[in-house]
Specification:
Strands 3-14-17-16-15-18 form a six-stranded antiparallel beta barrel. It has a five-stranded antiparallel β-sheet with strand order 24-25-20-28-29, with no helix packed on it. Strands 21, 22, 23, 26 and 27 form a five-stranded antiparallel β-sheet that branches. It starts with a helix and ends in a 13-residue tail after the last strand. By secondary structure, it is an alpha+beta fold. The protein is built from six helices and 32 strands. Helix content is 18%, strand content 33%. A hairpin with a 6-residue loop joins strand 26 and strand 27. Among the domains are: 148 residues, no CATH class; 150 residues, no CATH class. Helix 3 runs antiparallel to helix 4.
Length: 493
């Protein structure tokens, strides 16, 4: 009877609890349930492990440094041979021969003429302006002036103010050869033709219609102040106004050999130390070239002295050039150093590899029972993470016929002491030797999967690894950021 009474008492208590619950406001009950859910969720989150992923990217280890270089060239300012108005016969950046026609002086001002630019000329100017706008940086204000002068020169040329043959009179009285060099005249001497006097180049070279005070600068007399862009000033020589005798009318660059002087930080100087050559990429147009390299001390400033033998005419009007120093040439899959782990594998001679049924798959022949006269064997499929030749180099295409070297086989496939039989031979191999491979844990499948890597280069934060390795990584794979925080085949949330 006591048991029956106990049951009735328990039932009574349940009814009392239900009655109390039903007397509460429904909103209170819902709030309580939500609050309880939040507490449980927080507890579960705080007690569970958290795995951070990283998406594999393709590129260099670090970005190449971009610096501002000072261009030093062999330059000669040419003064006007007389006072008067200038008519230009050589365009900006044009290469003239020694004694070639460059400009003429007249006593009367040439009346400006209205011309319509061709669609081709307009398109070229639009393209130049678009390229300048794309690469323009507000800190490189001097570039705006340089570009203005280049554009002015293009317009003058297109309008016929800077023509090789400016009018009919010159065509009728032309005494120059096809190169613009005057025939039978002393080098640099003026030649009177009608109402104008033509002046020729004293040396062969590139014509530039601007000066900046850096024309006499050399690698021997350069100072720290020369690197300051804030004080840089460029003077345009193209003019329709009357000039005086002796005024600078143009300058000629007499050699295609030129030098870039690049101020360096101590860290970058240390990085470049020991190099004898370097590749530079000009951000202005994306062109690249190689030059000889040496590190020099200019006052308190270290600088890279890069000597070039070509490409100068493209940048003849530029004193300061933005260049990329190409020092990081190694490129591949970029991963964090923290993702790298090591895994132990059995190493098995490659000549013990066997083909599976129907010639499909790779594996090994394992002895199951060796007590009888004819040992019982079985074929075991094996996941081979890496194959190396006798020199320890990873097997590449065309080397499959070479059976020297060994395979890296997952340790889950065999046990230490297992005996393998060489195909078509009585020779055996006892599994015991191991080695480690570097890798990361891929998480594309939702659980940790070991992926083998071959590190090409690394710094304190990142590694560059090879693409296309067996059981390796591909671009945009997701891997575990902290490799040591998980175990292989662990479910990743």
């Amino acid at each position: 009877m006591s048991g029956r009474n106990q049951f009735l008492n328990t039932l009574k208590k349940i009814f009392i609890v239900l009655k109390k619950l039903l007397t509460h406001n429904i909103a209170t009950i819902m709030f309580g349930a939500l609050f309880l859910y939040m507490i449980v969720t927080v507890i579960l989150y705080s007690t569970s492990s958290h795995v951070t992923s990283y998406q594999v990217t393709v590129g260099p280890l670090t970005k190449n440094p971009v610096c501002t270089a000072l261009a030093i060239r062999e330059e000669q300012i040419v003064p006007a041979g007389a006072s008067g108005y200038v008519e230009y016969y050589a365009r900006e950046g044009m290469q003239v021969r020694k004694n070639g026609s460059v400009y003429a002086i007249t006593n009367t001002r040439k009346e400006p003429k209205t011309v319509e630019l061709s669609e081709e000329q307009l398109e070229k100017m639009r393209s130049n302006m678009a390229n300048f706008s794309y690469g323009f940086s507000g800190s490189d204000f001097y570039d705006a002036y340089s570009f203005k002068y280049e554009l002015q020169g293009s317009i003058l040329q297109a309008a016929g103010i800077m023509e090789q043959d400016s009018d009919n009179e010159k065509k009728e009285n032309d005494t120059s050869d096809e190169s613009g060099a005057l025939v039978g005249e002393e080098v640099g001497s003026p030649v009177a033709l009608g109402r104008q006097t033509i002046y020729t180049a004293p040396e062969a070279g590139i014509v530039v219609y601007s000066t900046d005070g850096y024309e006499s600068l050399t690698t021997e007399n350069i100072t720290e102040d020369a690197f300051s862009e804030k004080s840089y000033k460029k003077t345009d020589l193209l003019t329709s106004k009357e000039i005086a005798a002796g005024d600078a009318v143009y300058k000629v660059i007499t050699s295609e050999n030129w030098t870039l002087m690049v101020p360096l930080t101590d860290k970058l100087a240390a990085t470049l130390s020991g190099r004898e050559s370097i590749k530079v990429k000009f951000t202005k147009d994306g062109e690249s070239q190689n030059g000889s390299l040496s590190i020099v001390q200019i006052g308190n400033q270290k600088a890279a002295k890069i000597q070039l033998k070509n490409g100068m005419p493209r940048y003849a009007s530029d004193r300061f050039l933005e260049v990329e120093l190409v020092i990081n040439t190694q490129s591949g899959l970029k991963i964090p150093v923290s993702s790298v782990v090591e895994k132990e594998f059995y190493t098995i001679p490659r000549d013990f590899l066997a083909q599976g049924d129907n010639g499909e798959g790779k594996g090994f022949i394992r002895e199951v029972d060796s007590k009888g006269s004819s040992p019982v064997t079985e074929f075991v499929d094996a996941v081979i993470y890496k194959e190396v030749n006798g020199k320890g180099e990873e097997i590449g295409w065309g080397e499959e016929d070479d059976t020297s070297g060994y395979c890296y086989v997952d340790k889950k496939t065999f046990q230490e002491g297992d005996v393998l039989k060489k195909p078509d031979s009585s020779e055996t191999y006892t599994i015991e030797r191991t080695d480690e491979l570097q890798g990361v844990y891929g998480m594309n499948k939702g659980y940790a999967v070991f992926r083998q890597i071959n590190i090409l280069d690394q710094n304190e934060e990142y590694c560059i690894v090879s693409q296309g390795t067996s059981y390796g990584l591909q671009a945009f794979d997701y891997i575990v950021l902290e490799g040591e925080s998980v175990k292989e085949e662990e479910i990743l949330h």
